[in-house]
Structures are given as structure tokens and as C-alpha cells.
């Protein structure tokens, strides 16, 4: 539905431009239909993270643009607030190190997963961010536009200009979209597909944000070289940017012609440039500018006036988390750097760790001269020192892998602590002055980490109001009534990870909350309460016994007896609560007797399906075979193993790290790759069917001895489960 409902944005734009009432009527009808799909307005207003919304696919970003258009039409602040919330949520939880968006075509809350990053998704993120920039004027939005354009965007186009990718991974190889999504090909146009026609918008959209008008004048956002002619208030102004940015570390903005009027030139100062120097050929311009701000110079401009910005292009390291733990991304200005197999004499497995203590010694080197026309070109080459004393040559991400070679943008490094990400209070939440629980997502299974919570009165944390000592866990209660008073009620907070190797501030906008005496009571997400051995659910399913662990939400079933509980038909299944699905390892085990084999469809032994591409586990029977499958940023499934009817089987699925293993009657029955970490909206699971799918995936079967653990059971524990049943 979210794909069809994006028409709202087009209709709203047509109404704004033409005033034709029927376009607005259509917009309102689709707005009602939103509640049956992504629920974009209400989800944004109640603070749900975008990846937790009902439809977090990339197509929905074009629905979110409709919120911006509705605000422009109506001026109603609810549309603006929902739009801003969604943009910030995506930026905080799903923007990749390349500036791109998506994991398997949707938001997942994990930007570190080595999953598919579709070109169309990056285009949608750029379009959404342009609207956010129009709405807020936030210079940090321009940082994201620049990052996405110069890295994930340009990296999707082959150096020859002939083709675009479907998937531009952070680490891996690049192949033509005509290969990856060849099913879209038509006779005579094998390279024509969604990504090949959408990708050029990465460059085309520069016209929408490189230079923009503002109420007092003009804003220069992009420092790519070029000439720009604009006519605010009917007076033609021509700007020329003539230096080789971003290979060079400076840019000159020259007024080639200007109307006889006083206006303000707004120059965006990137947040990554810690020390930006400013020079002008006239008096009154400041010598320095603050990172992450807009520098404004107002005067009666004349031809020949110029401002030169000298940026801080020192290399900076951004620490990874989850699958990218113990790795960093290195940036020089707006360009992400990557290791490319074509530029080295060693393979990926021998990639040395970067020496972060000696980043200041990095140097730009001239690429080797081309010896033939087909030799791949690189835009930038940088040499950094590795921990083993060797020199590591890196290239700009857009050029990496252009020869069809392997590349990596997450680089091993002398350990930096992984970042932590704020969860509660939610971003933009209104909270009461008093005791409030603060909660964050911390690194999993990394020992000896502590955290410092900082609260400030501004987003730049220039004025810190409060900072904790080191906190070992991932939550604490703070009395906000005790904070120092400030004129404004807004506060910003962040969590800094502390270890013996240093400190890490997450590379995301800090969360904001507003103090309000009339705010509703704080609501936290439910948490699972496992047993001492990690049990989440234990239920014998014999007679009327209740679960020893866990909560049975719904029990529509047939007979219950000494052998177990039977379900049959579409309206019968057993549903259990799972307040918080395990993000990494887990085990599901159940005894099942298939009383009838499903015909022409699959039947669910176990299902935790929440939505398309959000299925942390299902155990299914299809065409007489048993499978274990996961959908999370991609599709993962074990080979099928024959299973028969009329007798009992012990079925187990064990997720351990990046492997999903299937066991039948205590014996290994196949395995497959799996995402190491999963973030899911699943809050329940079922035996005998799928409670959230309108189709028929029921199973006629009898179940007993159901167990669900938030850890991977050992081979010996699985063997004991099978032996106990035979005895």
C-alpha cells in the first residue's frame, strides 16, 4: 500500500501549484488510507522510530514528503512535526556511512548490517533531505546531502557512465543493476530498470540544493565547482565557484555579477570542518566560522567580491557498532575513504588495522599514470599508517571497486569503543520535570565499557547542564527537576561510550526533549524478563497447563490432552507475547506432529512474522519439507529437509552470530547465513499459523514442549532435549 499511497505527494504538489480543489480532495482521501499502511502522520506524532513504523520501506519516504507538502498547504504544525521526527529518526538509526539509506530496501534500525543498499533508496533519502533543508535551513542536512551525493550516490554509477548499480554496499563488490535485477529487463533495453533511471537524480537534484534562495538573499550549500545564475526579486546574480573542491581543501565564492541591492550571502560551514578559516577581499567578513553553522555576510555586493573558505580536511574516524564493531570509517572532508583491492598487493583477509593515533600523518598521493584507456581512474588517493607499521593506501569511496575488485569502507582499527544510541526519552518527547528514566542502546557483548550521559541546553553541547559519572548499564533514572534552569524548555542529551581506549560520541544528531509540567507520564517499551537460563517461553502444552515462563496471549485450538495441543484450520493457533525479540542469539524448540501436510502453500510451525522483510524467524513446512527462514534486510533460509506426518518430531532453530541452524530430532538438518543483529517490530510469536498475515498459512498439527530462549543452546543441550523425549 505504501507504494500506491505516494501519489499523495504528487497530488499535494499539484494542488499547491494549481489550486485545483479535486487534487486536495484526493490528497485527503489518501491521508485517511495512510492509517491502514504506514500511519505516517500518527506514527511521527507519537514518537515511533521510523524503523518501528508499520511500513518502513524506502518507497514510504516519498509518502513522508507528502507531510511536508501538507504543511506547506495548510500551515498545520502537526504535519511539520511528524515530518521532522521521521527525518531525524532515519538520520539517527538508518543512514549508512556512505550517506546512503536502507537495509534490504527498508529501515531496520541498524546502519551497520552488511546488507543491500539500493540506489533508489539513496535517491529517496536525498529527496527527503532536500525537503527537510527547505523546511528547517539546518546546515547539517546539507552535510548529509553532500555525503550521500559524493559517496553512496556517485558510487552507484560506474566510472564509464554506462550503468548504475542496484546495490552499492559499504563493503563488497559492485555489479550492474542489469545483472542484479535483470527481471526488470525488457527486450532491447537490458540495462533499463528502476535504479538506472532513478540514479541520475543524484546529480540532477544538485540543482535543487547547491544554491538556494533565502528571505534575505542566497545560500551556498554545495562547494562543488560551478557557475550559478539566480534572479531573486528580478535582479540577476551570478556566482562562480572555481576551485577543485573536494579534492582541494578550499573553495572561492566569487560574485561575477550582482544587482544593485543589499543582500545576505549565506555560506554553509560543514560540521566536519572543526576549524574553518575565512578570507574576503573586502572588510567586515569574520576570520573564522563555527562548525555546523551558516555564516552570513550582508553587504551591497559588487562584481569581483569574493569569499574564500579554507576547510579543515584532517582525517576523522567514525567508530562502528554491531557488525562494524572494532572498525572505523575514515573521512577526508566530505569523502569517505575505502580500501580497494586494485590499489594494493594483498587481499582482504590481510588488511592491517589503521593506526588512529597517527592519522595526522596521512598524506594525499598522486594516482599512478594511466597506461591504457580501460585502467580505472580514482578521484582521490590517501596513504595512512597501519598499526603494523606498514602504509595503507585508500581511495575515495565513489572510485573504490570500479575495476570489479573487492573494497571495504569499514576498516579494522586499534580499538575504539562502539557508540551508544539514545532511546528514551524519545527524540522530541515532552517529559515532566521530575524522575525520568534514560535508556540507550549499548554495545552488545563488549566488556569493560562505561557510559556518560550528558544533557545540554543546545544541540552543539556548548553549554552542558549535567553529566553523570561512569554508568555501567544502559539505563538510569535522573531527576530533571534538579537540572539548572534555562530560559527555554528544550534540552538535548547524548551518551558517550568510555573505555580504556578512549571515548566515542555517536555520529548522529543528539536527541531532544522538552520539559513540560503537563506532559503525559513516561511510557517505556515493554521488556522481556527471561529466566536464569535465558528462558523467554516454556510451555508443555499438555492438558490445561499454563506456561512456566512467558505469556500465552491467545489459544484458539482444538483438543488438549496428555500428548499436547492440536490446532487445525486458519482460525486456530497459539500466540505468545515476546515483548522484546532477542537482537542477536536465540533458540526456538518445539515438538510437533503433523496431522496433515499443507497442500499448495506453506504451513507455519512457528512464526514471528511482523511485516514484509521483518520476520526474525519462521519454521515452515512447504512441499513436504521443513525450512528455517529469516527476513531482515534480506532473505535467509536453510535448505529443506523432508518431514513426514503422523509421528512426533523435535524441531529446533538456533541463531548463533551470523548462522541460523536447523535441527530435526536432535540432528543437524542444514544451516544458512543470517544477519548477526536484528531489529524487529515483532512483539509476539505463534505456533500453527501467522497471526499477522491475511492469507492462509495454517497448519493442522499437534504441539508440545515449546521452548524459546534468548541465547543459542549448545549442541549438548539440544541433544538432551531429544533424548528426554525418547525416554
Task: Describe this protein with a few key phrases.
alpha+beta, nine-stranded antiparallel beta sheet, eight-stranded antiparallel beta sheet, single chain, 13 helices, 727 residues, globular
Give an overview in words.
With 727 residues, this protein is an alpha+beta fold. The protein is 18% helix and 31% strand. It contains 13 helices and 43 strands. Strands 1, 12, 13, 14, 15, 16, 17, 18 and 19 form a nine-stranded antiparallel β-sheet that branches. Helix 2 packs antiparallel against helix 3, helix 5 (60-74) runs antiparallel to helix 6 (77-93) and helix 6 (77-93) crosses helix 7 (119-136). The longest helix is centred in the N-terminal third of the chain and has 18 residues, at 119-136. It is globular, with a radius of gyration of 28 Å. The two termini are 51 Å apart.
Tell me the strand percentage band: 25-35%
* Mean pLDDT across all amino acids: 93
Distance N to C terminus: 51 Å
Helix content: 10-25%
Oligomer class: single chain
Which regions have little confidence, pLDDT < 50, spanning 5+ residues? none
Q: What is the general shape?
A: globular
Helix-and-strand structural type: alpha+beta
Number of strands: 43
Main sheet record? 9 strands, antiparallel
Radius of gyration of CA atoms, rounded to a whole number: 28 Å
Helix count equals 13
Amino acid at each position: 500500500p505504501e507504494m500506491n499511497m505516494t501519489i499523495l505527494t504528487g497530488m499535494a504538489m499539484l494542488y499547491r501549484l494549481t489550486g485545483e480543489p479535486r487534487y486536495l480532495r484526493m490528497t485527503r482521501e489518501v491521508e485517511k488510507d495512510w492509517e491502514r499502511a504506514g500511519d505516517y502522520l500518527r506514527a511521527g506524532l507519537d514518537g515511533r522510530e521510523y524503523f518501528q513504523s508499520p511500513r518502513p520501506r524506502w518507497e514510504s519516504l516519498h509518502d513522508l514528503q507528502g507531510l511536508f507538502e501538507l504543511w506547506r498547504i495548510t500551515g498545520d504544525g502537526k504535519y511539520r512535526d511528524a515530518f521532522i521526527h521521521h527525518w531525524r529518526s532515519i538520520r539517527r538509526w538508518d543512514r549508512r556511512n556512505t550517506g546512503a539509506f536502507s537495509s534490504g530496501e527498508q529501515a531496520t534500525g541498524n546502519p551497520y548490517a552488511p546488507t543491500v543498499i539500493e540506489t533508489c533508496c539513496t535517491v529517496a533519502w536525498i529527496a527527503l533531505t532536500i525537503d527537510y533543508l527547505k523546511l528547517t535551513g539546518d546546515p547539517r542536512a546539507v552535510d548529509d546531502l553532500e555525503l550521500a551525493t559524493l559517496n553512496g550516490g556517485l558510487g552507484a554509477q560506474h566510472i564509464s557512465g554506462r550503468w548504475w548499480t542496484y546495490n552499492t554496499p559499504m563493503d563488497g563488490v559492485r555489479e550492474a543493476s542489469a545483472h542484479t535485477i535483470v527481471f526488470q529487463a525488457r527486450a532491447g533495453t537490458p540495462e533499463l530498470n528502476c535504479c538506472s533511471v532513478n540514479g541520475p537524480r543524484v546529480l540532477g537534484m544538485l540543482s535543487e540544493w547547491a544554491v538556494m534562495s533565502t528571505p534575505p538573499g542566497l545560500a551556498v550549500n554545495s562547494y562543488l565547482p560551478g557557475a550559478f545564475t539566480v534572479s531573486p526579486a528580478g535582479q540577476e546574480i551570478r556566482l562562480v565557484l572555481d576551485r577543485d573542491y573536494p579534492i582541494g581543501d578550499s573553495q572561492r565564492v566569487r560574485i561575477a555579477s550582482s544587482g544593485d541591492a543589499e543582500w545576505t550571502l549565506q555560506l554553509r560551514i560543514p560540521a566536519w570542518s572543526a576549524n574553518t578559516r575565512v578570507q574576503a577581499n573586502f572588510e567586515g567578513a569574520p576570520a573564522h566560522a563555527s562548525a555546523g553553522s551558516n555564516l552570513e555576510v550582508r553587504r551591497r555586493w559588487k562584481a569581483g567580491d569574493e569569499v574564500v573558505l579554507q576547510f579543515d580536511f584532517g582525517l576523522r574516524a567514525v567508530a562502528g557498532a554491531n557488525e562494524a564493531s572494532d572498525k572505523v570509517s575514515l573521512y577526508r572532508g566530505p569523502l569517505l575513504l575505502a580500501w580497494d583491492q586494485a590499489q594494493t598487493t594483498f587481499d582482504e583477509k590481510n588488511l592491517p588495522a589503521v593506526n588512529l593515533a597517527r592519522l595526522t600523518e596521512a598524506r594525499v598521493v598522486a594516482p599512478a599514470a594511466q597506461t591504457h584507456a580501460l585502467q580505472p581512474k580514482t578521484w582521490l588517493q590517501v596513504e595512512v599508517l597501519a598499526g603494523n607499521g606498514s602504509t595503507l593506501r585508500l581511495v575515495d569511496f565513489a572510485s573504490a571497486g570500479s575495476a570489479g575488485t573487492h573494497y571495504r569502507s569499514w576498516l579494522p582499527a586499534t580499538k575504539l569503543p562502539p557508540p551508544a544510541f539514545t532511546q528514551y526519552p524519545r527524540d522530541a518527547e515532552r517529559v515532566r520535570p521530575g524522575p525520568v528514566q534514560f535508556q540507550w542502546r549499548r554495545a552488545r557483548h563488549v566488556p569493560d565499557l562505561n557510559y556518560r550521559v550528558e544533557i545540554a541546553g543546545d544541540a552543539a553541547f556548548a553549554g552542558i547542564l549535567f553529566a553523570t559519572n561512569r554508568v555501567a548499564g544502559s539505563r538510569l533514572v535522573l531527576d530533571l527537576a534538579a537540572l539548572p534552569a534555562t530560559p527555554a524548555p528544550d534540552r538535548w542529551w547524548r551518551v558517550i561510550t568510555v573505555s580504556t581506549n578512549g571515548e566515542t560520541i555517536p555520529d548522529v544528531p543528539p536527541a531532544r526533549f522538552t520539559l513540560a509540567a503537563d506532559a503525559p507520564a513516561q511510557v517505556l517499551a515493554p521488556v522481556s524478563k527471561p529466566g536464569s537460563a535465558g528462558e523467554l517461553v516454556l510451555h508443555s502444552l499438555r492438558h490445561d497447563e499454563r506456561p512456566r515462563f512467558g505469556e500465552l496471549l491467545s489459544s484458539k485450538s482444538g483438543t488438549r490432552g496428555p500428548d499436547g495441543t492440536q490446532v487445525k484450520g486458519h482460525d486456530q493457533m497459539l500466540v505468545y507475547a515476546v515483548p522484546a525479540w532477542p537482537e542477536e542469539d536465540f533458540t526456538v524448540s518445539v515438538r510437533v506432529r503433523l496431522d496433515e501436510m499443507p497442500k499448495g502453500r506453506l504451513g507455519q510451525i512457528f512464526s514471528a512474522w511482523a511485516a514484509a522483510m521483518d520476520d526474525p524467524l519462521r519454521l515452515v513446512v512447504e512441499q513436504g519439507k521443513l525450512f528455517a527462514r529469516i527476513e531482515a534486510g534480506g532473505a535467509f533460509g536453510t535448505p529443506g529437509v523432508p518431514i513426514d506426518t503422523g509421528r512426533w518430531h523435535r524441531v529446533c532453530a538456533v541463531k548463533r552470530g551470523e548462522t541460523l541452524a536447523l535441527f530435526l530430532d536432535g540432528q543437524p538438518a542444514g544451516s544458512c547465513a543470517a544477519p548477526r543483529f536484528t531489529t524487529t517490530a515483532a512483539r509476539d510469536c505463534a505456533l500453527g499459523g501467522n497471526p499477522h498475515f491475511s492469507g492462509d498459512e495454517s497448519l493442522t498439527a499437534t504441539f508440545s514442549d515449546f521452548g524459546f530462549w534468548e541465547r543459542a543452546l549448545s549442541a549438548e543441550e539440544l541433544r538432551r532435549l531429544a533424548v528426554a523425549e525418547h525416554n
